[in-house]
Structure prediction request, 105 residues.
Amino acid sequence: MYYASTRPHESKSRVRLETFNEVMMMLAFYHMLMFSKFNLEPETAFLMGYSMVTVTAIFTGVNMGLIGRSTYNKWIRRKAILVKKMAKKENTEQESGSILKNLMS
Prediction:
């Protein structure tokens, strides 16, 4: 596993994800060998289909889950920034209102 030993990303989670993706792709490619003329028994190829679907489902599920988590975290951060901006805007409006009241009296 060349990728895991060179570590081109600084983040450990990114290296783990890329390593996981490489392993899952290797498993998928090994499964594809079983659907070629290398495997002479059709029943074995049929059973390997279940394994191939499982590997593909895990691969897709993990990546989609990470995409969903990343999107949710970004949404939470943006919401927090928006709430801060709104609170700051309300504070400045209240302060400017009290300054106007002081000037009027």
Residues 21 and 59 are 7 Å apart (CA to CA). The chain has a mean pLDDT of 83.
